[in-house]
Amino acid sequence: MRYLGIGLILGMIGGIKLMWTQLNKKMTTLNIQKLLNALEKVRHNMKMSIKLEAI
Questions:
Q1: Residue 52 pLDDT > 70, yes or no?
Q2: Domain range annotation of the chain
């Protein structure tokens, strides 16, 4: 299960980078900042759930 969680996080980071390049072309920095804050919360929640699974 732990490896699945690590793969998920790495996949998400890769997806975020891809989205970031797309967004950089289209959006203002303010909107990007809002999006990054939202993504950070999601990532934090995922880390917590992975820790719970590991226990």
A1: yes
A2: 2-54
